[in-house]
Write a structure and sequence with these properties.
Strand content: under 5%
Order of helices and strands: HHHHHHHHHH
Number of helices: 10
Shape: elongated
Helix content: over 70%
Structural class: mainly alpha
Number of domains: 2
Largest sheet: none
Distance between the termini: 45 Å
């Protein structure tokens, strides 16, 4: 139970820190729910929504709050796993990839034998891929995605999603190749041939992996 409560705390913290460094610390669930209530949009008192309605209206802070309150009151509810997957998908749709991955990871941790755990693993990987694909992402995300994707498609348990992940892996390599080439050209213009050669060598390594 203590581990689960710490998990709930992280969800709220991710909401507050999304767009900066992601989830790094936890605070008590009661404090999180109180903080979330205080920061809710003013329309809450005038219009109460259920989680599905909140998601449709892209009010994900509201939806996260509903999840926290429900899980705090009904920690053993059979509805919780489905709620977590819905929130993961919703945050992916709104390009909030850190929190989307967090919900998928929490599902995997709390329900390792859940009937949709393969979907949770896929959403976890998809959130990482989309984060890497976003402009300005660091190369290490691509390397992390490739490592996780290769492990994913080597496991027959996830075969339902293998084709999608292979396509994602193919696109990730293409994106990385284009970024390396752009950097190589940039350093050539700056008169730094060693730096340009470094990124051209990275692309040679990428070609060998095909």
């Amino acid at each position: 139970m203590q581990n689960k409560l710490r998990g709930y705390g992280l969800a709220m913290l991710c909401v507050l820190l999304l767009g900066s460094v992601g989830c790094q610390k936890s605070i008590p669930l009661d404090d999180l729910v109180k903080t979330q209530k205080e920061t809710m949009p003013a329309q809450k008192s005038a219009q109460k929504l259920n989680m599905n309605e909140a998601i449709k209206q892209h009010k994900l802070v509201y939806a996260d709050n509903l999840y926290l309150e429900y899980r705090g009151e009904h920690p053993d509810s059979s509805k919780i796993p489905a709620m977590m997957l819905k929130l993961s998908k919703a945050h992916i749709k709104d390009k909030e990839y850190l929190l989307a991955r967090y919900y998928a990871e929490t599902y995997i941790t709390d329900y390792p034998d859940g009937k949709n755990v393969d979907q949770a693993w896929f959403l976890r990987l998809k959130a990482l891929f989309l984060r890497f694909r976003s402009p300005g992402s660091v190369d290490s995300l691509g390397e992390q995605f490739e490592e996780e994707a290769v492990a994913f498609i080597s496991d027959p348990f996830y075969r339902k999603y293998h084709a999608k992940v292979r396509e994602m892996l193919k696109e990730a390599k293409k994106i990385q190749y284009q970024r390396n080439e752009a950097l190589a050209l940039y350093y050539e213009k700056l008169g730094k041939p060693k730096a340009a050669a470094f990124y051209r060598q990275k692309n040679k390594s990428l070609k060998k992996k095909k």
